[in-house]
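Help needed: design a sequence for this.
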């Protein structure tokens, strides 16, 4: 009889890689297990809660040099960071924003990671009636890796009063949000022309004008797992009137996506030097 681990490897190769990552956590090589390489700070961007209004909470991850955490789709290994919120009655979490990841390749394994700093923003909607004291708790779990990996966790708690309070920290909060928004993906680029599914890849065409910025490179980070071939780089092909971005698909799972859903990264020229544009794509395939 085959062992459970062998069965998982046969049926789900990507999950097996993650299983090996988890098993590696308990290796005796983990001398750093008692030394956190990632710190987390939770900052409510409000000093009081106005009834019926929304406010934001920033969660800031700070990584030691060369250490990283993982994006919501970690790629071929790793685990995404998770947040479990315990909100006051009738409060609702309406939005979560996460920075655009970077592609990381180590010993042939491709992962999507956050390095140095990652700022998440959560939007909370308050009910029409707000108590004088409101308690918030969030349990955060992540995987931090360098040459080895170890789990990290943090339980954060804070209390906000009802009613608007003087915003003595508003300038500091505005600066923090601006810093976070630099790494958030934005709306779909206007120059996107068409999508075509071509066997083992998706071809995304971008209109090209004589005055357009020159496309130097591109990458794509899918929200969906087990459909795209994370291990293959995204390619670009330049044409006279349009540039084409080639996004590889898994060719051994016989899965064809119905929607292109992910973050498109474009590196382009500009008069002031190279610029990077991060865009969210949610587009139906023909």
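Sure. Designed sequence:
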């Amino acid at each position: 009889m085959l062992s459970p681990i062998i069965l998982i490897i046969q049926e789900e190769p990507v999950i097996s890689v993650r299983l090996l990552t988890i098993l590696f956590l308990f290796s005796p090589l983990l001398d750093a297990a008692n030394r956190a390489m990632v710190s987390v700070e939770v900052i409510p961007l409000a000093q009081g809660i106005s009834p019926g209004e929304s406010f934001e909470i920033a969660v800031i991850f700070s990584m030691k040099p060369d250490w990283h955490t993982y994006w919501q789709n970690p790629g071929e290994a790793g685990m995404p960071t998770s947040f479990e919120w315990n909100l006051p009655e009738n409060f609702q979490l309406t939005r979560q924003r996460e920075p655009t990841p970077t592609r990381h390749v180590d010993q042939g394994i491709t992962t999507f990671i956050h390095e140095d700093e990652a700022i998440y923003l959560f939007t909370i909607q308050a009910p029409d009636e707000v108590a004088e004291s409101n308690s918030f708790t969030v349990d955060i779990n992540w995987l931090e890796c360098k040459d080895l990996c170890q789990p990290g966790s943090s339980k954060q708690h804070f209390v906000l009063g009802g009613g608007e309070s003087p915003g003595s920290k508003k300038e500091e909060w505005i600066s923090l949000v601006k810093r976070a928004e630099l790494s958030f993906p934005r709306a779909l680029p206007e120059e996107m022309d068409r999508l075509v599914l071509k066997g083992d890849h998706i071809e995304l065409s971008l209109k090209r004008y004589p005055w357009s910025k020159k496309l130097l490179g591109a990458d794509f980070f899918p929200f969906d797992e087990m459909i795209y071939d994370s291990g293959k780089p995204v390619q670009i092909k330049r044409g006279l009137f349009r540039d084409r971005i080639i996004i590889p698909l898994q060719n051994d799972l016989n899965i064809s996506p119905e929607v292109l859903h992910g973050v498109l990264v474009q590196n382009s020229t500009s008069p002031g030097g190279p610029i990077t544009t991060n865009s969210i794509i949610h587009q139906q395939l023909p």
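The chain has two domains: 4-24+36-181, 192-284.
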